[in-house]
Design brief:
Structural class: mainly alpha
Order of helices and strands: HHH
Strand content: under 5%
Shape: elongated
Oligomer: single chain
Number of helices: 3
Low-confidence stretches: none
Number of strands: 0
Helix content: 40-55%
Radius of gyration: 33 Å
Length: 84
């Protein structure tokens, strides 16, 4: 075969028992129980509720739309303005 048209094919042959074991073996985790699925959904939901609550309360401060020292708009400074 002149001209470099040779093809090399490498075949790896495994014993038959090892191939069957490789197909049947591996990581096969069991599914979590109902309690654990429910607990994970409750914890995940409470995490997102807390994140959205904090974003509602502190979001404008974090984004720079409001200064942290401006208060919450409850009229706190109106009560103390006369005596001080």
């Amino acid at each position: 075969m002149a001209g470099g048209s040779e093809r090399y094919i490498f075949v790896i042959q495994y014993p038959r028992a090892n191939v069957q074991n490789m197909v049947a073996s591996g990581f096969n985790p069991h599914l979590p129980g109902f309690r654990y699925q429910l607990l994970s959904k409750l914890l995940g939901a409470s995490m997102w509720f807390f994140i959205f609550y904090r974003a509602r309360e502190d979001g404008p401060k974090l984004l720079g739309l409001r200064h942290p020292w401006e208060g919450h708009g409850h009229g706190h400074y109106d009560e103390h303005s006369g005596g001080h």
